[in-house]
Description:
This protein is an all-alpha fold. It has two domains: 9-219, Up-down Bundle (Growth Hormone, Chain: A), CATH 1.20.1250.20; 227-400, Up-down Bundle (Growth Hormone, Chain: A), CATH 1.20.1250. It is built from 19 helices and no strands. The protein is globular.
Amino acid sequence: MAFIPDLGVEFYLTSVSSELQRLDKHPIYFFAIMFFGAFSIAFVIPLLSTYIIEEMQQPAWNLALVFGGFSLVSLFTNRIFGGLIDNGRPVKSLLLINICAFTAHALIQMAVPSLFTLIVFGIPLLGIGTGALSTMYSTGRLFAEQTGRNPSTFNLHMRLCLSLGWVFGPPAAFLLYSSFSFFEIHSSAFVSALIWLTLCLLFIPAALKTHIKRQLAKAGESDAVPAMLLIACIPVFALSAANSIFMSAGPVFLLSELALPPSTPGWAFGVKCLSEVLIIYFAAKPTARLGERNMMVLSSLGALLFFATITSATSVGQVLLLCIIEGMYYGICASIGITFIQNYALHKPGVATSYFINAVFTGGLAGNILTGVIASYTSFQNTILSSLILALLATSVLLIIKPPASQKMAAT
């Protein structure tokens, strides 16, 4: 997307609050909010299955109930909050609802840990709380536009903070799990959530909201969601599902079917995350030169190469080398994908952002379901190879879909 230098600048110069001026001068505050949000969520979610099975001694079907339940709540939360943002609701109030819900979940499990409280309170609270990712992305988009920043580059920086949160969150949680009880784990999650909440209260401007709705009304333009926005979600959904399949089936395949050393999945995940972070950090200039759609095509081609070759690996070195490609393809998808989708609905950034988050989320769920079904009837190698179909779907749509029309939004 070509950056429009005057996008939001007039609004910024004439109407900004002192809070927005402070955040404009010190954007590190926003990145800190993004990091602690991602860290807090990444600290809790990966341990949920261990919490239910090992700590509560509950049957495995409860995993489907809890994960499926809060995922559905999160999908609806993203869609509703995205619409509210585009209709002019200040983003801070919505983000506070997200964070308070997550904080309440940690507090309840710290005080009254049980399957009952996890189902009755945890499902809705986690669903609303994890919706903070979509709200934070929408907040970042509006902040970038209203302070004259390049939204595409700012999206990359936000994704980098999100990735770093997931790099540190799960290891910290499992490190605590190896030495302490879940009371200490939920206490730590509560403290992390309080830091997240405090940063939001201090640094997110109370008056920050969309500047686009008034502009559309003044121009007499349609406020409808474009059909192309839905089509643009397909590649992100497909690549997220493919990534989820390998995350679920990869460790078992590497250990059971390739008979590689037990440490291989951990090293593979680490190499993938490092590659993902690096590609996000350096993606700005190639994206400015090639455009978001061409970068997404590059991502899908990388996915085709990875899934076509990973099942033929015979050594740890080969696996790690291929995981560099895995991190590159998914790093591009996860960081560029949001701008790619937003470009098809520049007049509705909140809804577009919620569509991106939901495409990633539903792709992850679909990948987990496909892994269970395919692996039950065939091998984990064939399960991973099925990701080729998803990568091919993403590539086909990206080659066919029309680039978004160039839009220049005049700020009020």
